[in-house]
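Please, is this right?
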Amino acid sequence: MRAAESAAAQAREAVADALRTVVSGEVTTGARRRAEYSTDASNYRVVPDVVVQPRSTDEVADALAVLRELKVPVTARGAGTSVAGNAVGPGVVVDFAQHLNRVVSIDPEACTAVVQPGTVMSVLQQAAAPHGLRFGPDPSTQNRATLGGMIGNNACGPHAVAYGRTADNVVALDVVDGRGRRFTAGAGDPEFAAVPGLKELVRENLALIRTQFGRFGRQVSGYSLEHLLPENGSDLAKALVGTEGTCVTVLGATLRLVPVPQKPTLVVLGYPDMPAAADDVPALLDLKPLAIEGLDARLVEVVRRAQGETRVPPLPQGAGWLMIEVGGATQEEALATAERIVAASSALDSEILPAGPAASAMWQIRADGAGLAGRTPAGEQAWPGWEDSAVPPEKLGPYLRDLEALMARYGVDGLPYGHFGDGCVHLRIDIPLEASGSVLRTFMTEAADLVARYGGSLSGEHGDGRARSELLPVMYSPEAIALLERFKALFDPENLLNPGVVVTAAGTPGSSTAGPGTTHGAPVTPSGAPALLRVVAVDENLRRPAAPRTPAAGGFSFRHDHGDMTTAVHRCVGVGKCRADTRASGGFMCPSYLATKDEKDVTRGRARVLQEAVNGSLVHGFASQEVHESLDLCLSCKACSSDCPAGVDMAQYKSEVLHRTYKGRLRPVDHYSLGWLPRWARLAGGMPRLLNRVLEVPWVAKAVLWAGGMDTRRKMVRFAEVPFRTWWARGGATHGVPGLPLGQAPGRGGRAGARPKVVLWTDSFSDALSPTVPQAAVTVLTKAGYDVVVPDRQACCGLTWITTGQLDGAKKRLTHLLEVLAPYAVNGIPILGLEPSCTAVLRSDLPDLLPDDPRAHAVAAATRTVAELLTSPETAPGPETGFRMPDLSDVKAVVQPHCHHHSVMGYQADEKLLRDAGAQIEVLAGCCGLAGNFGMQKGHYDVSVAVAENALLPALRGAEPGTQYLADGFSCRTQALQLADVEGKALVELIAERL
């Protein structure tokens, strides 16, 4: 076994060495990198032998020449968001997104753009927008999907009704085929001079092409050979779109742009159910809408539960809806078209929304639902596979009814939605993949038979990949399949390009037209295994069944994942939202990836490595070097827990990995210095002035930082000379609270009996490092009419123990915290948290670490932020208190929501409170970069600063004089002070000083 593994490693290195002679970008055979590229957004796992990141198109061409000589298969990859397994394969994976990602040029007169294949679609939209142009098709993944990938899959999106598929918007392609020929594919050459034999292939099969290909707009499965017909312009470029990298490798593309629609107006129509909505689609298409999208009530309810009531505006009456966008030269023209849509429909109810916040909120339901549909209404994992079937729009209603009946017969569930104007249905289904793919195979086979009966397509926009290629004979005749194989053979006779996908080249073993033969001389992977010379099976190389259970082991309970860490890490299905520049959408994930742009540092890449650690065949367990490399730059910001549509919580997984790795072992020194910070802060409380003076000596501070495993470029924090609890115990509140008579402390006499109680929980940071924050809270709460209760005993939430994976220690502290706080919570008394990261522990980590203790759930439910307490109907100050928020109309502020605040509690209440009080605020989207212990740890300083440059530092540098910096997080205020010399204050401090 070892000898075989050694030989495979040597073969991989030999291929890598050959590639390094022509590629200046990264060429690696490392297990961690191969794990990151072992799957895409599909159900499939194929570990590549080598990952290559070329820096130029010439390097791509040279690398392909090397691989042809060695007969090594190759798969082209963009963002890796393919849901059918189109972007994984044996041999070598070429990553185009890392370096080949530029918009080369835009010609506004010709309405065209030239792009590199790794260009993210939203980047092209931004470049075209100043010219009043855009690329027509717009899939939901447009802020991370690359145009090369869209060309490979023939992607579409909602506006394909108006603008067509990607194929309809491609003018020319710069390609290299499997024979090594580089040429420009375009239209208007019926001789097809660049591809000998293609002219004859088309002429011999005109009737077959005309009858079986291009029967309706969303027939994406197979190859789109209809574009080769003379009546369609003999367009080789369009025919190569959707070939999934099996015929050519795209090096560049010239794309058609369209004018940005004027005065877009949204019509929302309500129906009894979604099939009834689909029945109405044919009658509405004649009115030339820009988009017709279908929604189901169950999907809307899932969005409402996940995002909150405020994210879901009122919808027209019904349980199924059509969202129809129309345009016009003027608003009046658009509204007139919208009214004709309503009149032509049979809807129960309707609403017309001109462009604006209301229409955007309605579209956001559709955008949020696209991600949240990865889980069923019951919260179970739903998988792609039958993800984007399509039928002619006039048959969509009956097809949906039969599809629902098929799912009911299998006892499976999912949340259908889709591009109803094109007859395309998106659906992920909770097929039980934990043990095997047998149910997947039988369901997919029956579903293929069903869509074929309706004259439909297995795929309406995502391609066949590994999920559906085997099923193409259900949809096409044997003659048509043979034609597809002959077409591939003209470009890639040795099956080196994405082998096993769509079809196998004619004449090779496994093809329907193959004669007698063997695999002698066949392409091989570097590890010595023959490359696929047949189409892959639907249930072959499935990722989930290969992963054994990893039960909870004394750390987190994984209560939302059936007590199984394997299920938890497989929440990541690879949709890749973490790869997007989420700052544009108000998201926070993933700060380290925004700084490094490396798949290693994105939530998905880390999840893939953890999945491989569970599998154990490539990455050997959680203690492996690959796992710890992958998690090293995770800031534990928890943004993925809310921003990721699948609910991946990488901060939790990192803590669990550290817990399992170091349990009973000596830990890194920073786990003791930073992980036990509350303990050191409590000790420092006995002599804070002396300690601060000592730590102000530069060489002493650097020595302490170095010895504690921290970066010496950092500064030591200052300990409060009078911690809050000391101040409170000494009666400091008696003469420190404006608005109270001297001698009357909150909760100590006066009208206390008539005042509602609130527990002011002072976490370790607020107590020892920022006592002015809880002091300000006393002021605000007292003025708001509350009886402030500060428990006699300190209660630490164990945050720093959690982030360093010391979960046994964290549980001890949380158990003590329950003893202190639970008596208040179970009696309906709210608990006010001040430090967002600590408040988030009570709301999120506490119930998962102590799931069987009902007190944990009571405390989680009772915990509030300042803004929640002051604005929630259950806890807000009543009119009898006379409390009014101070006028903040003269306040301009840069506001940094703490990542945990954003991800666990949500920042909406805080933002509303500030805006309602008149403040002019710039709310930053993104992490400050310090993230608790992360930015202090040795080796993290440069990334910490780079993360701060994403949003925080530019905002502070660009702020007008007199602008406040508001940040509830101690780490956020520390980062601004250390990197920009800007003092920040918490929201409650701003309110207190203005009362």
